[in-house]
Design brief:
By secondary structure, this protein is of the alpha/beta class. 33% of the residues lie in helices and 18% in strands.
Length: 279
């Protein structure tokens, strides 16, 4: 019995000692967290302790690259590659195409200034078509007054984190890149993730020629051709480049195709199968 009481007393003393030690440790840890938050250190920085936080230069200032939100789980099922054909990618890093993060939606906004009648539904249909072919989720966030331009900053105060994909309208008088038979231009920026050397596409842009698109919509089979133009530009946004094959929608001078070709579908599926950024 004496031994049992002795063991009980020792255990109680050990517990009291541990509590006395843990209290100052907890105070120090809390103080470190408060100081860290004041200095801009986030929980993501703690999780990636020892890794340098990547930065971008925006308007002449160094800005920390925003970390991803939400879990690293695909938003939509991966689309299998079931076709083969001509395709090319806009950006390459280490032998792999640079892609959007499939675990986060591609938010997009619309500047409707100059938009021809009957075009808005085609924008949503084209986004859904690219989503279905790539497995990348497109999420419409409404209208904006930001002017669609390739001079935009990828991080802006008006948005939370990276700027979303913007779709807007212009004319060849306003934007020389739309001169001649060019009905649209599109693309994204290749940017490092918050940590490490993995690159992702961000802040996409599509600029459509108001005059050309308006004429196209009012022509025979115009809506289908106009939707194909928008799909072509959105494919540029997620990383698909031009090809010489006239049987692919990503041919630079397509004037008749209204459906994806086999190489288009192969490239889109590959672009939707990129890595997720760890939070």
């Amino acid at each position: 019995m004496a031994r049992l009481r002795a063991v009980t007393e020792v255990r109680g003393g050990a517990v009291r000692s541990v509590v006395r030690v843990l209290i100052p440790v907890a105070i120090v840890a809390l103080a470190a967290i408060v100081v860290g938050m004041w200095l801009g250190v986030t929980m993501a920085d703690v999780r990636h302790w020892g890794q340098t936080r990547n930065v971008l230069e925006v308007a002449g200032q160094q800005v920390r690259i925003p970390g991803p939100e939400g879990p690293s789980e695909r938003r939509l099922p991966q689309v299998p590659v079931t076709t083969t054909g001509s395709h090319a990618f806009m950006f390459d890093a280490g032998g792999e195409p640079v892609r959007y993060d499939p675990c986060r939606p591609i938010d997009w906004v619309l500047n409707p200034t100059g938009m021809p009648d009957a075009v808005e539904p085609l924008l949503h249909e084209a986004a859904q078509s690219v989503q279905a072919a790539s497995g990348l989720e497109f999420s419409y966030q409404g209208v904006t007054d930001e002017v669609a331009s390739f001079d935009r900053d990828v991080i802006q105060d008006r948005y939370d984190g990276f700027a979303p994909l913007i779709i807007g309208f212009s004319t060849e008088e306003q934007d020389p890149e739309l001169a001649g038979s060019i009905t649209g231009i599109g693309g994204s920026s290749s940017v490092y993730g918050a940590y490490g050397e993995q690159e992702y596409l961000r802040a996409g842009i599509v600029v459509l020629d108001s005059d050309d698109l308006g004429e196209l919509v009012s022509s025979t089979s115009g809506e289908a051709l106009a939707r194909a133009v928008i799909e072509h530009e959105l494919a540029h946004v997620i990383g698909l480049a031009h090809v010489q094959d006239s049987g692919e929608l990503m041919n630079e001078t397509n004037t008749r195709l209204t459906e994806w070709g086999p190489g288009d579908l192969q490239g889109l599926a590959i672009l939707g199968a990129g890595p997720c950024e760890a939070p």
